[in-house]
Amino acid sequence: MPLQKIEFKSLKGFRVGNAQNYEAMTGVTALVFDCQNTAGIDISGGGPAARESFLFSPLAYQQSITALLLSGGSAYGLEAASGAMKYLEEKGMGYKIAGGVVPIVPQSCIFDLQIGSAKIRPDIKMGYEACVNSETNNPVSGIIGGGTGATVGKIFGMERAQKAGIGYSAFKLGELEVGAVAVVNALGDIFDYQSGKKIAGALTPDRKEFASSEEGIFALPKKIQEGANTTIGAVIMNADFSQQQMCKIAAMTRSALARSINPVGTTADGDTIYAITTGKVKSDINAAGTLACRALSEAITDAVKSSRMSDSEYLNLIKGNAKS
Predict the structure, then answer these.
(1) Which CATH number characterizes residue 25's domain?
(2) Residue 252: is its pLDDT beyond 70?
(3) How many CB atoms lie within 10 A of CB 93?
(4) Which of 36, 69, 125, 269 is least enclosed by beta carbons within 10 angstroms?
(5) Domains: count for the chain
């Protein structure tokens, strides 16, 4: 059965929208689900900023989400979910109750307060706008939405880091379709998972060559800042799995982070992976988890390669934050 690469936009059951502020260098990506779904989660980092995470536990009664937000703003950015709930309530989308609905909106945020302006974060308006934008189904890679303020390779400080963003990838194996989205805001360096070649990360003081974040961790004279980094991702598929199985697939997909990022899962990262299925295709769980891992690895590579920025532009953005 040949593996085919497909367009992320061709996946069914949900749509993607973005809103961002380029002065603040922060934003929101909304995945709005138009059908019932089953979702799981894996949190491997030590400092996640998240909302409604317990809903992904097999112990939770409500197992279908209405939207998933990936945003900037650290814990401040969690306000964006209220805007998404406003939009979804207006559309009559969510858990049905007498006289209305309760939208189920989990969210994860990256720490992007060290670039652009730290005083402007995703809010109710931005969360609402991202959901409105999803009506065009807009899965664009690069410096947009939740990836607007993403950076990588920060072990030696922001002045030696590089810009990253949001990326996508999708595959088809027979009737099984699996896609992934990644917002890459890692403490560590980023590697092409196929070649092992470093493609982004910490730089030497003159920004002319790569430095090693791993060696930086070993040599670090003091404790790193907790929670100032996070890679957040979601894999979406059309298979028939339980919530427990989707949690297992999310855990399997963690291997994508290890393939592509080093160091990873530190106490300074809030690495989180969501796994959501919208269909009923029969599939082996190990095949689905392995394909999800490949899709997320590709999405991480896409997030870096689509977010190139000149040194002068990048340095101006982090210097501007210092003054704000």
Answers:
(1) 3.60.70.12
(2) yes
(3) 19
(4) 36
(5) 1
